[in-house]
Amino acid sequence: MSPSFRSSNTFFKVETRFGEKIPRWELKLVFILYFNRAIEIVYVRRIYDLYMSRFGKRMRRYLATWSDSFIEEFNEDAHRRFLEEYIPDLYKTLEWGYAFDDDKSLGAFLFVFHSYKPVSEPNKSSFCRFEFPHDCDQDEIQAFVLEVAAMAPFTSGTCGYVLQPWPDDVEAFDHMYFVCQRYWGVEAWNQDVTVNWLADRFKCISWLTFLGTSILQEFPDLHPAASRAAHAYRELPTGAMYQTRPRAALIDLNRREDFRPEASLARALLPAQIVKHSSFGGNRWTDENSVQWLHRFTPD
Amino acid sequence: MSNDETALSLVKQIAERAIEHRSFFRIKREPVFRPGADEQDINKLKRLWRHPLPDDYLNLLRTHDGIDNFDAPNVFLLSTKHILDNPDMDELFVDAEMFREGEIFIFCQADNDAHSVAFRASRKGKIDVVDIDSGGIRQEHQDFVAYLESRKAELEKDIARHKADRKGLTR
Question: Is pLDDT above 60 for A1?
């Protein structure tokens, strides 16, 4: 990546709103695992323990994922409360997830887990999401995500570059549209929309693509084909991970960067990919071009 | 069972279920059943509205003159004193042109938003019950007992849904 990467408005735009700096859009490395049911407490606890043992010292704040909760300071006392009270009490009342971050406006480390209510909010995929600065050590991230994925029976997941638009910012979603049309290695993002379409399929090819055991069992021919097509793969107790290339790449079509590794894996995994997805948002994305974009590596 | 007994029984069941309903939202509020109203206050109440108030409602007030934290999450069955001290409770809804002046008589109200339950008199004098908030009419019921039955059923359905959401998850 060029030295002017961060100074370019293509991947980062920060604005001051109400005295606070916010990223209207930002390139990050994001790892997300989706679950087709609420995440059981035992798995939440394992993932929490692993994340905090690796990145806990960076964490400064937390909040519960229900809409009116307040941001609280994350410190040793809060960590103890999570172990003794908050995680064991998950799902009993209002708390169906928590988010933690390092309080940085740009390039933040963030960890969030949230389960949707099986009866009140049916057909939505629960998730665990980990965000890292775009220039984070990819070897460290890869080692971490493989450990997480082996811990809990997920349905699918991705890890790679994502352009995160500020929620409800139409211009940011329109900008994401143009970036994603040019850079095929940058994943279009609107998690609130995506969770409605993933029940037993995966979203799209990423640097690292994860398929859970349930999908691999439904499509027994998938794993042999995908393991041949991938740059590397890893079998996990919970499913499998397929890697397209040694390092995540932006895949700039204007520079004619090669996307054959992605196309090859995408063809192998096509039977398990979603065929429906509503618009990512903004004025440019539509239902139709959102699905087309998700299938960009397998246009036919 | 007479209408009065049915109403009293339903009111108690609603208050009981409201406690369980609130527990899913970590709200700790217990119902407070106030002692019965005296006949003087009942008569003042009857004169406050130009239409006849239903007997089963008035008889409930004779047993319990208001129930704090009656329904979930924060609805009170108003006491005669509260109603007599606040004769313009309907103003918000009249100003919003949802009802004509004197068309409704509010007997239940939330303590922190506009949610209210009222008797409504039609132009022909028929009295029914409307469940209202700032967005308009949420529900309509043919009479007081029908309103109570509906609330009990709604609470039970909601509680069942909350339990189903958590089944197998809170071990």
Answer: no
In a domain, A92, yes or no: no
Q: Do A91 and B164 touch (CB under 8 A)?
A: no
Q: Among A9-18, A135-144, A217-226, which stretch is predicted with the lowest mean pLDDT?
A: A9-18
Enclosing domain of residue A262: 3-38+115-294
- Per-residue pLDDT reduced to its tens digit, B127-142: 999 999 989 999 999 9
Complex confidence, ipTM: 0.84
Residue B97: CATH number of its domain: 3.40.1580.10
Residue of B nearest to A116 (CA): B165
Q: Provide the domain count of chain A.
A: 1
Separation of alpha carbons A234 and A239, rounded Å = 9
In sequence order, what are the residues at sequence separation of 6 or more whose Cβ sits closer than 8 angstroms to the Cβ of residue B22?
B28, B29, B72, B73
Cβ-nearest to A94 among B26, B169, B171 = B26
Of chain A, the percentage scoring pLDDT greater than 90 comes to 92
pLDDT tens digits for A50-71?
A: 999 999 999 999 999 998 889 9
Q: Do A38 and B169 touch (CB under 8 A)?
A: yes
In chain B, whose CA is at the least distance from the CA of A90? B170
Q: How many other CB atoms sit within 10 Å of the CB of residue A135? A: 12
Chain A partners within 8 Å of B23 (Cβ): 93
Task: Identify any residues that bridge with A162 across adjacent strands, giving them in sequence order.
Answer: A28, A187
What's the predicted TM-score (pTM) here? 0.90
Q: Which residues of A touch B171 (CB under 8 A)?
A: 41
- Mutate one of B21, B162, B169 to test the A interface: name it (highest A CB count within 10 A): B169
Instruction: Tell me, yes or no, whether A247 lies in a domain.
Output: yes
Segments forming the whole domain that contains residue B122? 3-169
Tell me A106's DSSP state. S
Q: Own/partner pairs for A219-227, CB < 8 Å, 24+ apart?
A: A219/A271, A219/A272, A221/A271, A222/A268, A222/A269, A222/A271, A222/A272, A225/A268, A226/A265, A226/A268, A226/A269
User: Which residues have a Cβ under 8 Å from the Cβ of B135 and sit 6 or more positions away?
Assistant: none
- Smallest CA–CA distance, residue B111 to chain A, in Å, is 19
- Residue A201 domain-assigned? yes
